[in-house]
Structure formats: C-alpha cells, structure tokens
Amino acid sequence: MGSPLPRDPIADAQRNWERHGWGEVAAPMAAITAIMRTQQILLARIEGVLKPFGLTFARYELLALLSFARSGALPMNKASALLQVHPTSVTNAVDRLEKAALVVRSPHPTDGRTTLIELTAEGRTLAKRATTALNNEVFGQSGFGDDDVEHLIRVLGDFRKAAGDFTD
Amino acid sequence: MGSPLPRDPIADAQRNWERHGWGEVAAPMAAITAIMRTQQILLARIEGVLKPFGLTFARYELLALLSFARSGALPMNKASALLQVHPTSVTNAVDRLEKAALVVRSPHPTDGRTTLIELTAEGRTLAKRATTALNNEVFGQSGFGDDDVEHLIRVLGDFRKAAGDFTD
DNA sequence: TCCAAACCCTTGGATGTCCTAGTATATTGC
DNA sequence: GCAATATACTAGGACATCCAAGGGTTTGGA
C-alpha cells in the first residue's frame, strides 16, 4: 500500500498521548493500536494466500470449522457461535460457499428452525489444500518467536476470557 | 452477540491442528487467530464508545491524527500513509467527516494534485471529547497488565517493522 | 390446549477495506 | 519545450461485519 514510513506511527502516537497529559493510558493505547494494525497485516497475508483458492478468510474459517466437525456438518447458529461472528455473517459466507458448491444447506432433522451446513467433497478437498497453504506460507512463517507465540496465546487468551468469549 | 462458550474455540482449533499432524504450526496459528479475535473485541468496544459521538474508529483515527498535526491539516496521501490504509479509505472517511462538518477539504497551496484535510473547530472539539471517552472507557481499562502491555508493544512492534511498516 | 415468548435464519441497509480504473497535475528526461 | 512517467484523488465494485426487522418454528406457562 505504501513504502515503509521513516518512523513508527504508533510510537509517535504514544508520544503524542504522553505529551498531552494522557501518559497513564498511552501504553495501552499503543498496544491496542498495534493489535489492530497487526491484525490488518496478518489478514492481508492470509487473504493473499487464499485468493488462488477462490476463498476469503471468512469462508475459509467456516470451511475449516466444518472439516473438523465429526459429521462434516454444523447448524448455522453453532457455526456463528464458534466463529464468534454475527449470524448474518454466516448467512453471507454460506451463500457464497454454496454457490461455489463447497457446502450445502440441509434442513435439521428434528428442529424446523435450524439449517445445517454440510461440507461437500470438493469443499473438504479445498479446505485441506487451503490449510496446507496457510500452514506453509503464513502460520509456519509468522515471524513470531516461540516464546512470543506462547506469551501471545496466554495474554490474549486471558483477555478473550475476561471479555466473555468463553468460560472454560 | 452470544453467551460465552463452554470452551475456548481457539484452543480447540489448536488441538485440532495438532491432532492432524500440523503440530509444528499449531501454536502460531492459535496466536494469529487470537490476534484476529482480540482485534474484533477491541474494535467493538471502541465503536461502542464512539457511537454517541457519531464517530466510527476509522473517522476517529483521522480526526485524532489531524488534531496532532501542527497546523491541524494534512494532505490526504500523508494521512493514508500514517494511518496505513488505502487512499480510497481516506476518501471515504473524509467524505463523511466533511458531511458532518468536522473537517474541510482545501486545495494544496503549491501542488494541484494534493488535497488538504483540515480540522474545523467542531472537529477539534469532538476529537478531544472522543479521546477522553476512549481513554477512560477503553485504554484505561484494557484489561492487560502493565508487563503484558510492554510485551505486546515490543513483540508487535518488531512484527510490524519486519512486515515493512516502518524503517526507524 | 393454546398463545406468547424465545429462537433461527434471511433480507435490507450502513460502514469500512481493498482493488481497478480514470482524470488531473507534476516531474523527468530527451 | 514536450512527451513519457509518476503521483494524487475519486468513482465503482466486491466482500465482510454489524444492526434492525420480518417470517417461520418451538417451547413453555396459564
């Protein structure tokens, strides 16, 4: 999107915060802003790897989730809960995946309100290939050291738990 | 969006990765997924605080950036570079901020290609009020410990630098 | 039994992000 | 000096996310 900046804009923001008497919260502000930016970078990498497969991250996540379900199928509301996104986002993703013949919608056997999302054979194959690509090109080269990875998992796990993501 | 899950879905994903022979990259995958989810949570909190001000995070960031510029004005391309977003995203944000009379577009004095974004008095006031709210309600209660904040700033800073965000 | 409340999914709308052009203005190089 | 290249912004389109509403299905209490 652009060439590297001469200075870290987030560090600058932190200095600005301190300069304006908000020193107390300057560091958390910087950390949070860094998380936002890191997410943006990671998402771009992931989308870049998935593009050749005709997938976006949202669709890939759903595909991967289904591929781990014992039966290869999940109710939409279950998928929404596990992916932690709004139900309408799942509807959107399923619409597109279904058009691509990677999943199929089927009625729930006992609950007429519920719709099951089912992986097709092509969907399962594509999920596997996409996962391999992501593992090789993104997760396997994250750039984070092993210790930092462990630390991130712990710190962000605590944060997510405190935010009400899960009980455990 | 939903009640807490009984188990951490990211930890489950990590176990699934290991179970499928991708143990080498399971941890980075979990860390990256956690970053994505954490960003989602933080963004929701921030947007919640900004909503009463009629602002979104994208618009607030631009407003805050301008409020720190010495002259209260910046060329659009400069803003795009500093915020690390696509130029069209800045166009979009400026359109809306201008409709709200928080900024004004003005021609660059010497370069006819460039457009300056200028903070209005209301824009400056609103930026200040919104910043106070964010500091009190989000950054001041991030939930991250001081040590974790320092660690995040360092680790994510290294990551962003390696990703080519800045030279420094 | 039966109706109200709860739940599930979808549609429509608002935002934001990116990409791909297209237009206008500057700079460069011959 | 002028053409070719580079830069700056914007228009249009594809996607994703959320919220608000609406229609169908279940559940539960009177």
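qc> Chain B has a mean pLDDT of 96.
qc> done
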